[in-house]
TrEMBL record, chains A, B:
Classification via Pfam families: PseudoU_synth_1
Protein name: tRNA pseudouridine synthase A
Gene Ontology terms, MF aspect: RNA binding; tRNA pseudouridine(38-40) synthase activity
Enzyme class: isomerase
Active site, UniProt feature: 53 (nucleophile)
Domain of life of the source: Bacteria
Gene: truA
UniProt catalytic activity: uridine(38/39/40) in tRNA = pseudouridine(38/39/40) in tRNA
Binding-site residues, substrate: 111
C-alpha cells in the first residue's frame, strides 16, 4: 500500500465541515474521497488531522490516504486539483511511511480567527472574516487571552454532547494582532473540542466590547457549565492554519 | 444643494458593472441610487468617476451626488452602509464644493489586476483573481509592458463600438510585481477605453506564456484593428484602485 500525505486548503463556506457523515456528500472529506476513489479504482478513505466546523476554512489541513495503485506525488496532485471543486485545493502531496496517520500523529494545531473591526463592511472579506462594527479594546482582549493559557478543562467552551471523554486541553499560545484593519487571533494547543475556538473567540470579543470582564474567565472555566459561555464567533472567520507533527 | 463625495469599495462579482442602464437595478450605480433616493426623499443621481466592467471590483471608486437635505458625513456613511448590500461598502464620505464632479475632474486612474500563478487553485481568491496554471515569464511581461507606455491610439485594445470619439489614451506607468504567489499588474493612465485594461493584461499573459512576442505589440497598436488583439483577461481579477483629481 502507498501512503500519501496531503496538504489541503479550502473555503468551507458551502460545506457542512470536514467530516463525512454517512453518505453526506456535502463535506470536504466526502468531496475528496469521491475523487480519490475514482482515481484509485478502489474505495478510499481519507484521514484528516481533525474536523473543521461547517463554514470554517483551512489554510493547511493535513490528511492521509492509502491506495494500492502507485502514482507519483505530482500525478496525485494534478488529478485532485483537476477534479476537485475550485474551493478545495491540494497544495502539496508527499509519499510517506506506512505508519504515518494524520490524526494520531498530530501533536498540535494552530487556528486563526479574522475579525474585520471597522464601522463599514469589507466587500472582499465578508465571507472570510467576522465583521465587528464597534471598536474592540485589544488591550483588554490580550489581558483576557492570558486566562486561557495552560491546561484547563474546557467543558464550558465546548458543545460536545459526549461527557465521557476528557475535556482537558492545553493551550500553548493565544496571540492577538492587528493587521490592515483586521484583528487576527491565533491560538495553538494540543487539541480543541468541538466549537471551542469559536467560543473562546466569542468570549474575547465580549471582553473587547466591554460586555464582560477578563477576570470573569477563570470562573467560567471552573464552572464546567456550557451555559456559562456567551456568544460563539461565526464560522466564516475561522481557519485551521497549521498542524504540527 | 449639498454635494457629497463618496469613496466606494465593491465586490463586482454579482453585478452588471457600475453603470445603471435604464431601469437595470443589478448595477452598482443602481443599488447606490436606490438607497440614496430613499435617504434624500428625492430622486438622486450619482456620478461615478468612470464605469467598471461587469464582474470587476473597486477598491476606491470615487463618486458624487447632490441633495437638498443636509446630513453630516457620518450620517450619510452610516445610512449607506446600513442599507447597501454587504458587497458594496462606503469607506469615506466628504462634503465637497458645489463644482466637484467625479467624472469631469478625474485626472487619472489606476487599475490593478491580480493573477494567481500556481499549478493549484487558490480557494479564497478564486473570485478575486485570474488563475493561470502555467508559469508566466515575468521578465518577458515587463519587456512587453514598456510598449504600452506613453500616448497611443488604443483602438486595437478596445471593444467600444462608437468610432467617433478619440481612442487616444496616455499610459503613465505599467508595473508588474510578484507578491505571495500573485502577479500583480498595476496600470495608471489618463483614461481607459471599454475593456482596455483586460485586453492589455490579456496580451501580457500571452507574452508571459510565450504565445506571442513582446515585439509584436507596436504593430498590434498601429493596426488599430480590434481583431488583432487576442485574449481578454477575466473580469474577476480587475480592480479600480485609485482615481486621481
Amino acid at each position: 500500500m502507498n501512503n500519501y500525505k496531503l496538504t489541503i486548503q479550502y473555503d468551507g463556506g458551502r460545506y457542512k465541515g470536514w467530516q463525512r457523515l454517512g453518505n453526506t456528500e456535502n463535506t470536504i472529506q466526502g468531496k475528496i474521497e469521491k475523487v480519490l476513489t475514482e482515481m484509485a479504482g478502489e474505495e478510499i478513505e481519507i484521514i484528516g488531522s481533525g474536523r473543521t466546523d461547517a463554514g470554517a476554512h483551512a489554510l493547511a489541513q493535513i490528511a492521509n490516504f492509502k491506495m494500492r495503485k502507485r502514482m507519483t506525488e505530482e500525478e496525485v496532485m494534478k488529478y485532485l486539483n483537476r477534479y476537485l471543486p475550485q474551493d478545495i485545493s491540494v497544495v502539496a502531496v508527499t509519499l510517506v511511511q506506512d505508519r504515518f496517520h494524520a490524526r494520531y500523529n498530530a501533536k498540535d494545531k494552530t487556528y486563526s480567527y479574522k475579525i474585520w473591526n471597522k464601522p463599514f463592511p469589507n466587500p472582499f472579506m465578508r465571507k472570510y472574516s467576522m465583521h465587528v462594527e464597534d471598536k474592540l479594546d485589544q488591550k483588554k482582549m490580550k489581558e483576557a487571552a492570558k486566562h486561557f493559557l495552560g491546561e484547563h478543562d474546557f467543558t464550558s467552551y465546548s458543545n460536545a454532547k459526549a461527557k465521557k471523554k476528557s475535556m482537558v486541553r492545553e493551550i500553548y499560545s493565544l496571540d492577538i494582532k492587528e493587521k490592515e484593519g483586521f484583528i487576527e487571533i491565533k491560538i495553538r494547543g494540543n487539541g480543541f473540542l468541538y466549537n471551542m475556538v469559536r467560543k473562546v473567540v466569542g468570549t474575547l470579543i465580549e471582553v473587547g466590547l466591554g460586555e464582560i470582564e477578563a477576570a470573569a474567565i477563570p470562573s467560567i472555566l471552573e464552572s464546567k457549565e456550557r451555559i456559562q459561555t456567551g456568544r460563539m464567533a461565526e464560522a466564516e472567520g475561522l481557519y485551521l492554519e497549521k498542524v504540527g507533527f
